[in-house]
Amino acid sequence: MNITETTDCQTIANLNQTVHQLHRQLYPDIFDEYNAQKALGFFESIIDKPEFTFLLVEEDKQPAGFAWIEKRTYPGIAYLDTYQSIYVHQISIENAYQGKGFGSRLMEEIFDRAASEGISRIELDYWTANESAKTFYHNKGFQPYRETVYKHL
User: Fold this and answer.
1) Which residues fall within 8 angstroms of residue 30, CB to CB, at 6 or more apart?
2) Can you give the residue ranges of every domain in the chain?
3) Would you say 65 and 15 are in contact if contact means Cβ atoms under 8 Å apart?
4) What angle, 0 to 180 degrees and rounded to 10, lies between the N-to-C axes of helices 9-26 and 36-46?
5) Were both Cys, which of 82, 86, 128, 129 would link to 26 (CB 3.0–4.6 Å)?
6) 3-state class (DSSP) for residue 44
7) What are 15-36's pLDDT values in tens digits?
């Protein structure tokens, strides 16, 4: 298992299909069908932004998954202190590699990167119907501290 940073938009767009299709299955009223060209265009538009990092995990030089992370700085305001975090936008592991430690290894890499930059907070969100994500993140020590709700009219 090897983890590297990447700017290969095509590989990221391809790997994004797995998580996108899961979201589509769970929330068909929100997520459109996966469109490879749209995904590629989206990742091309953000891949070079300095706050974003894309980590590629490979096995025997074959892409197994990726993580999209962002370094965030929250400015202090009257009632909040200034702080930094690493925000995990997505982790996606190809079906053939799921349950084999690839996601765990990506999380370890994210934890190590945060620690090396003196950042002590990792943040993320996941769709509540995604029970496997909920279990995975809970097992990694994540705990809820804020909840987002909606009402469909």
Assistant:
1) 23
2) 2-139
3) yes
4) 120
5) 129
6) helix
7) 999 999 999 999 999 999 999 9
